[in-house]
Each structure stands twice: as C-alpha cells, then as structure tokens.
Amino acid sequence: MIDQNNNHHDNSGHDDERWMSRALSLAAKAGEINEVPVGAVVVLNGEIVGEGWNQPISACDPTAHAEVMALRDAAQRIGNYRLVDATLYVTIEPCTMCAGALVHARVARVVYGACEPKAGSVVSNARVFDQQEMNHHVEVRGRVMETEATELMRTFFKRRRAEKKAVRVSESR
Asked: Which of 35, 51, 67, 116 is catalytic?
C-alpha cells in the first residue's frame, strides 16, 4: 500500500522522522566521499539493525546502493537474510534493483524521503511493489522529510557541477 500523503496505515507508533534523520546523516556521509548522497537504515523492533550509504564508486561495486548496504548490514547483524517485520528508511525513492532486494528480504515497510523521477521504481516509474505477481508486498510511505532529502541532493549536484566547470576552465587556460 503506497501513501504519498504521509499517512500511517497502522497504529504501531512508527517514528518515521527520527529514523529518516539518521538516514539523512548517512546520506551526508556519502556526499562527503563524493558518492551520490543517499542513506538508509533498517529498523526492527524499534532499533537500528542495519545502516548503509551509497558506495558504488568507492567500493567499485554497482550494487553498493544505500539500501543494499543497509540490508547486508542488517542481515549480518541478525543472522538472517529475511528481514521480516523490518522497516527500511531511505532518503531517496528506491531504484528497481533496490526495490527487488527489499522484496527478496521480505521487508515489511519502506519509508523514503524524496521521489526519484528518473530511476525511482516505487512510485515514479516501474512501481515494483504494485506488481500483483510479486510473492511479497511492501507497505510504503513516501515524502518523509522530503525537503531535507531534496536539498541534500540539490546541493551535492550543484557542487559537483561547479567542480566540473572549474576543471574545464582550468584545462582551457
């Protein structure tokens, strides 16, 4: 069930903003090492059991997206690749690869910050979680702390464009 209006679908007292704040701090960490600033945390029974941030460039691993890194961390910590009843918080809408990994991990719920109009596969494009033939369905809440997540991305890409421009200018001299 996808909710674009930030409404909860249950009464379990999810503290979405608290956990999204942690994901945002991990996203900032990614940005500091020149990775696209995306961060993710896996929460189970009110505790963080996995954390990750984008690392595909630094790890030379195209699958090292924040969500995958957080799922790997959580699976190792709890000793099971199935993360039943867990919630993943991620600053940007997951891509197709990450959405598939969330289904395979049996994550119960995904909370994301900002939509990703190009590669997002939850609400923006492929809508992976809406496919009826999937053997597991994930509850979704979107646009939690969207302004902060969007600003982190905007600032990162603005800085990156300025750096590339500076290189071009210095090379032309």
From this structure: 67
